[in-house]
Amino acid sequence: MSDQITIQIIRNRISTLMDEMDYSIYRSGYSTIVRESHDFSVIVADHEGRLLVAPRMFLHAFTYYHFVQTVFRLYDKADIREGDLFVSNHPYQGGVTHVPDMATIAPIFHEGRLIGFCGAMAHKADFGGTVPGSTYGKATSMYQEGMMVPPVRLYREGILDRDIERIIEANTRQPRLVLGDLRTQVGATQQGCERMRGMCDQFGRDVVVEAMHRMLRASAIEFGDVIAKLPNGRHRAEGYLDSDGVNVDQPVRLCVQVTVEDGSIEFDFTGSASQRNGPINLRRPQIEACCFYSIIALLDPTLKYGHGAQDVVRFKLPENSVVNATPPSPTSSYMPTAQRIVDLVLEALGKFSPRRAIAHSGGTGGSLTIAFKGDGWEGRGHQYEIFGSAYGASALGPGASGLTVHLSTTQCAPIEILETEYPVRITRFELVKGSGGAGRFRGGDCFVRHYELLRPATVIYRADRSKFPARGVAGGSDGLPSQFKVNPGKSDEAVMPASSMVELDVGESFSIQPAAGGGYGDPKEAPAGA
Amino acid sequence: MAGYRLGVDVGGTNTDIVLYDEASGAQLVEKLSSTPSNPAIAILEGIDKLVARGVQARDIGFFAHGTTVTTNALLEHKGVPVGLFISDGYSGVIEVQTQQRGGNMFDYTFQRPHALVAPDCVKQIGGRIGSRGEEIAPLDTDAVRSAAQELAAAGIRSFAICYIFSFMNPRHEQMTAQIIRSIVPDATVSMSSAILPRIREWPRFSTTLLNAYLEPALVRYIDDLSVGLDRLDIQVAQRFLMQSNGGVMPFSGVKGNAVHTLLSGPAAGVRGTCHLLARGAFANLITMDIGGTSCDIAFIEDGKPHEVSGSEIEGRHLDVPSLDIVTIAAGGGTIAHVDRGGFLVVGPESAGATPGPACFGRGGTLPTVTDAYILCGFMNESSFLGGSQKIDAEAARRAILTHLGEPLGLTPEQAAEGLLRIVNARIADQIALKAAKTSVDVKDFTLVAFGGAGPVHAAAVAKELGIDRFLVPFSPGAFSALGLLCSDIVHDFLRSDLADLDTITSDGIEHHFKALEEEAAGAIQAEGLSPGGNVFSRELDMRYAGQGYELRVPLGQPSPGGVIDLDALREAFHTLHEQHHGHSARDGAVEIVSYRLRSTSVTRKIALQSNAQAPAIAPETSRRVRFGSDAAIETPVVARSHLPPESACKGPAVIVQFDTTTIVPPGWTARIDGIGNMIVERAENV
Question: ipTM above 0.90?
Fold first, then answer.
């Protein structure tokens, strides 16, 4: 057995290496999405593609294993060489979250032996398709969502295949941003491999390989111990998305049954809607992310995910469903579905372990696009904002108000920057007091934001939870649903569907209000002063 | 003519006082336990001791002070109640903040740090300034008046004024301040347009709120201290306070600047390193300051410390310039444990002063880094403040065996060595990461170790990093206090006005800087400093259009004709962007976001003397020390004061002095240079 202290040092060094790769993408990122939304991830995996440590962007974590398996299926293992690098943004073949997320993986070789993989995935500015940004809310097929690169070899033994790069270049509205970001990402991936080789030189390859093995085993032990403490049993939760964004009158059913049996846990999504025409479809890697996120968040937030955790978790995903879609179902609006599945899995898991049980949260606060018109504005960038909502209350206390929840964490744009850059005025920005569901602990309050246009514009707001508010649990009440209003407070005030597009003139206004969090427990038991 | 300069650094555990005799270059050091309830007590007591040693208080001609009063008040929630005036309809700015959450991403019970203002003390005031500074709606002065009266009646004396776009036009904030002062004559008023006149409302409001919350505590403390100094007959008018930016400010400049002291704790040591050590072959240094609870790392490149424009403290945004210092939870009191996965983990918890390390015998039972020092022979009873701390080696052994050795199947000695290897590797990893983030190569740097425990770890950390040399300054245990005597008076002034570089003119830029220079001159005069005794340096915050962050681009003084070369400026930005981010967009639109003016008044500083002698202590002659091989080796113990200048001491050796212990492993050699620094170097291939 290798020296345990050395193994611990290697483990710490692999975490630091991920920080370094992460920072190098952040630092060199061309697009603001990379820098401001941190919508990217980096990983180190073993020779089978099994993750050693979870990346900060947890929703990405499970794509990599899937991607590596596809590469193994597509390519002869003997033909995978040092210096190779594979790329894909294919939601099905590569398993990425949606088309704008392009992933890279590269094998780590030491003295001719494959010991692992490094990888990175980052949201790109555009891969073509119907709308700039390649996230078309009305897409009915993946072919409208932009160019899809299946897993292909971008570098062969260290040499860039310019042909593939040129194909990518020719299919984006933002070639400079996309290729710049891709090169940065490739650089971080290669740097990871280089550092891992350096560790093998310093400590010996066998020691590094054993350290990786030990890290996987540690995650198996950690998750095994925690899940072994759950009582056997079976609990269900189900809920609805407002719609798939295309068929706006049809709610989308989501349903999970969680079974714990002698230290293993199964997530069965049978009963969830069949895959949709609208772009809200998930695949297995995203479902895994939602379920493992929920296990960690509910049972013990200090648990460290490594692939070993898979030993005690099983998934049953109905074929051709919204949780296990097949081509050509569109995928670009994955976040509302993912957030809703987290709410449901947490609800079901909370019945096994009520200590940290939590009500539903407000989910994504939606996205806002304002496309100004006239005076040369058509050619310029749109105002684009992504909003948070509010947390549901938990058995431990009230939900936090006005923030991004669970799987997402993005900054909101400062009012002073928006008003300086765009012909818009934000006239109100405040929490909606009392909007969170009542309960022993109250759900978090959402915020409301009012906009006044100084130029005519097309305004697109895409949100969920206008029909199905964040559910309270254990006797708590629901939070307020989301709301999109045109000309609020005026004689022609109109409440719009939560996902809609309107044409507005100078002086007209609108307000957006994401959903608030659900309450937890009986309001009669609320502690004094709360 | 006053002949002494006095530096006083108050830390969480100790208060360090260094008196420097300008004529002889001699230093007197006093180390006392801090008195957190009123830090002035330990300071005045220490000065009393100096007086007892024959120092004439009236001969002290310079007094510089580093304090954590504001930092502690924030950590312990001991600021004052604040009344907030905020633009009507924009309370979401302070509630939603960035809409991000900090800490563990999986912990959905997350709550923001408690609000610095009670909900009923938030007053929304009508009136609105637009993005070009134009008035969209007039200030509702009636609302200001009634809010001020209501808050005054509730006993509020500190007020923050936070209006949207006040950095473009401060008139509404100034009118509000005037009304408040007419109602509460002794009010502390923090205007966002004065505290941080920069675009982006939340960082500006957050910084302003912090100032309002903390300034009264700092002012009260400074007043107390001043009275005490007067009473001791310390007559010097020039009394200075350390700031986060590595410069000092006069006591008289504290108002409106309390936030500038929040991150000042580790700054003096870095500043001291710059002035005293960073030259010649040592222009590039990495400082490693290890104390009881943490290890502070800073990079000095070409004699200049790396700086940042904004940071966070306790989850709160604080956008003031500060030295770029990385803090790692790795100090003498840091606790180790074995985690669920069977890995030995060090930190982040610390045993603190109580119960302290197990070996201190104050009730601590958990193994700490200091307990590992004892087991490895790095330290013993004589190592802690000249032997005044009793050491229970058996307790150290028991703690390490029970909590680390047994679960891991290691002997206590193996576990202790393992613990230190992990700490050293972690410090080295963080230094390497910081180097990668700032695009420098650690191999071009020399490590400087200070703080009570820095020199214990230096050789091992240097070896991990592939650095062949480290330096231990003359008084490593009181180095921050010494650093206070090496700091210039530095003030930063700032204003924002977003402009396209294609359309702005040289005159337009000059106009902003002239206004800042006038503001600076006024402030300097108000502080009683001589105008003209300072130099200005200019920087621009620039970005590509649409980017959410800026780079600070230095701008030289204007040529005699007074014309700023805009093409050169654009080029400088592209180049800097390339340096920082690996690429630039030469065809991209470039914008100026903010204008920064730094005023530096140079102080007379101390110089290290060639005849500096460490206070003599008489250690044992040898002890058994573990250097990573299986057995401990008999190792000479040498008093630093006995090392003659320029003679070499070959490792293995333990070099001891009153305030620290330096470990010199086999293959390393220590020598004292001409100005009293100890330089430890590694022979090749060891």
Answer: yes
